[in-house]
């Protein structure tokens, strides 16, 4: 029907794939999204959209490694030719990685969640979401002292990096309440450390 109009045909194919996805027919949806890539390779935007949609299907069915690999490949593929598309793939990777880490944290798998937050911090060093999750998991793993040392070694005050300064202040706040919360002893809050936390966070907020 649309053989003479590849763009229209690709759009129609995309609708079919989306309908299958909406109907929870994930296996068929994956196949249809790949048809767009194989049949219409010259339609860059449509191929990219189909592969981004495919990554969402993969996440939906729990194939996280495949989904992250696909997004990484999209970043590499379009980094030079279409940096706008590469950035979209990079943002999708980050948001999916953080969502995955958040879910692991909700399941109390703090070690694996901490590793995912660390990956997100490497991808986007200024992601407050990633720093918060990393610090919270460190706390529950009894690694808050190590984490404070880690942030100190980055020397955030010298570089005036407000994100790292904020993260250090947040880590101090967890340290201040560590004994009180983990030992269920409200009287064990460390007022000096709490003051330290407030002071450092105020410094972070003073930077534009």
Q: Please indicate the percent range of residues in DSSP E strands (runs of 2 or more).
A: under 5%
What's the helix-strand series?
HHHHHHHHHHH
Termini gap: 57 Å
User: In terms of per-residue confidence, which ranges show pLDDT below 50 for 5 or more consecutive residues?
Assistant: none
- The overall pLDDT, averaged over residues, is 91
Q: Please summarize the sheet with the most strands.
A: none
Please characterize this protein's 3D structure:
The chain has 208 residues and is mainly α. The protein has helices at 6-22, 26-39, 44-60, 64-78, 83-106, 110-123, 128-140, 144-153, 156-159, 162-182, 191-206. Helix 3 packs parallel to helix 5 (83-106), helix 5 (83-106) runs antiparallel to helix 6 and helix 8 (144-153) runs antiparallel to helix 10. The chain contains 11 helices and no strands.
Q: Layout of SSEs?
A:
Elements: H1 6-22, H2 26-39, H3 44-60, H4 64-78, H5 83-106, H6 110-123, H7 128-140, H8 144-153, H9 156-159, H10 162-182, H11 191-206
Features of the shown structure:
208 residues, mainly alpha, 0% strand
Briefly, what is this?
With 208 residues, the chain is mostly helical. It has helices spanning 6-22, 26-39, 44-60, 64-78, 83-106, 110-123, 128-140, 144-153, 156-159, 162-182, 191-206.
């Amino acid at each position: 029907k649309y053989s003479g109009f590849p763009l229209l045909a690709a759009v129609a194919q995309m609708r079919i794939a989306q309908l299958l996805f909406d109907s929870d027919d994930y296996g068929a949806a994956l196949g249809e999204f790949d048809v767009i890539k194989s049949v219409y390779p010259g339609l860059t935007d449509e191929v990219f959209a189909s592969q981004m949609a495919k990554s969402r299907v993969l996440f939906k069915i729990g194939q996280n490694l495949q989904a992250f690999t696909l997004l990484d490949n999209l970043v590499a593929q379009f980094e030079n030719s279409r940096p706008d598309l590469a950035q979209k793939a990079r943002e999708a990777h980050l948001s999916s990685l953080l969502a995955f880490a958040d879910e692991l944290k909700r399941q109390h798998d703090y070690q694996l969640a901490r590793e995912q937050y660390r990956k997100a911090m490497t991808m986007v060093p200024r992601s407050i979401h990633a720093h918060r999750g990393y610090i919270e998991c460190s706390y529950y793993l009894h690694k808050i002292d190590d984490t404070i040392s880690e942030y100190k070694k980055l020397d955030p005050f010298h570089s005036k990096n407000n994100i790292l300064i904020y993260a250090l202040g947040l880590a101090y706040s967890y340290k201040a309440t560590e004994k009180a919360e983990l030992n269920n002893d409200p009287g064990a809050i460390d007022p000096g450390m709490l003051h330290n936390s407030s002071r450092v966070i105020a410094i972070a907020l003073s930077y534009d």
